[in-house]
Write a structure and sequence with these properties.
The protein is α/β, with parallel strands linked by helices and 251 residues long. It contains twelve helices and eight strands. It has an eight-stranded parallel barrel, surrounded by five helices. Helix 5 packs across helix 7 and helix 7 crosses helix 9. Bound molecules: 1,3-dihydroxyacetonephosphate. The site of 1,3-dihydroxyacetonephosphate (13P) has 14 residues, from strand 8.
Length: 251
């Protein structure tokens, strides 16, 4: 179901102690507050079991930043979707551009990850987005469409309906260079149209599509005001309650 969502992606930040402290602070800041969006924090794997005990999932939901493309077995260092789910986490970011760029995650690998996440009742927050050279060459629509087609379009309409998408133009991530509200809306509308072409308008209209890339308290309101932008996937600004809370309150 289409929802407004503000999700924090902590990336590789915070020790266990720092992370549990941040989760406690966020929970305390949201207690008794009427917010108009779902709030999710996506933490490093090792934080999940502890933070799951701290948060009240009615106000703060929990996700991982990755999960394996294999079920279980001799895959040293990997963490499976079943393991993530067993911590109490409900979400998993998949296909983040940093995973694609630094860890060789292809559309085909991501297809397996999505399948296993869904089998374990995790909601994938599936990331898509073009790099700067692709945007400068006017290829952003094709790049994003191919990412969606190759990783997600084998899913049934029912399974696709369980996915959250996050459009993160790689040139906007951690650079302080946000996509303009118009650029975000244009791409989100294109993504929704692509989904409608495959699954029909009803499924497309029910899909939450988040924007990510240097979103902050200063630009969140304008970004979220777009009809096809259903929230944000927030990196740097999610690492402090002071900077994350105003983004949540932008709805
Ligand atoms: P920044 O908000 O730090 O640009 O990161 C965005 C992001 O990659 C979220 O997944």
């Amino acid at each position: 179901m289409r929802k407004n969502i503000v999700a924090g992606n902590w990336k590789m930040n915070k020790t266990l102690q720092e992370g549990t402290e941040l989760a406690k602070e966020l929970q305390a800041a949201l207690n008794g507050k009427a917010v108009k969006c779902d709030v999710i924090i996506c933490t490093p794997f090792i934080h999940l079991a502890s933070i799951s005990q701290i948060i009240d999932t009615k106000t703060v939901k929990l996700g991982a930043q990755n999960s394996a493309d294999k079920v279980s077995g001799a895959y040293t260092g990997e963490v499976s979707a079943a393991m993530v789910a067993s911590t109490g986490a409900q979400y998993v970011i998949l296909g983040h551009s940093e995973r694609r760029a630094y860890y060789g995650e292809t559309n085909a690998i991501l297809k397996e990850k999505v399948k296993l996440a869904l089998e374990n009742n995790l909601t994938p927050i599936f990331c898509i987005g073009e790099v700067l050279a692709e945007r400068e060459a006017g290829k952003q629509d094709q790049v994003v469409k191919t990412q969606i087609e190759e990783s997600l379009f084998d899913l049934s309409a029912e399974d696709f309906g369980k996915i959250v998408l996050a459009y993160e133009p790689v040139w906007a991530i951690g650079t302080g260079k946000t996509a303009t509200a118009a650029q975000a809306q244009e791409m989100h509308a294109f993504i929704r149209q692509t989904l409608a072409g495959k699954y029909g308008a009803a499924v497309a209209n029910e899909t939450s599509i988040l924007y990510g890339g240097s979103a902050n308290a200063g630009n969140a309101k304008e970004l979220f005001a777009n009809p096809d932008v259903d929230g944000g996937l927030i990196g740097g600004a999610a690492l402090k309650v002071d900077t994350f809370l105003p983004i949540i309150e932008a709805f």
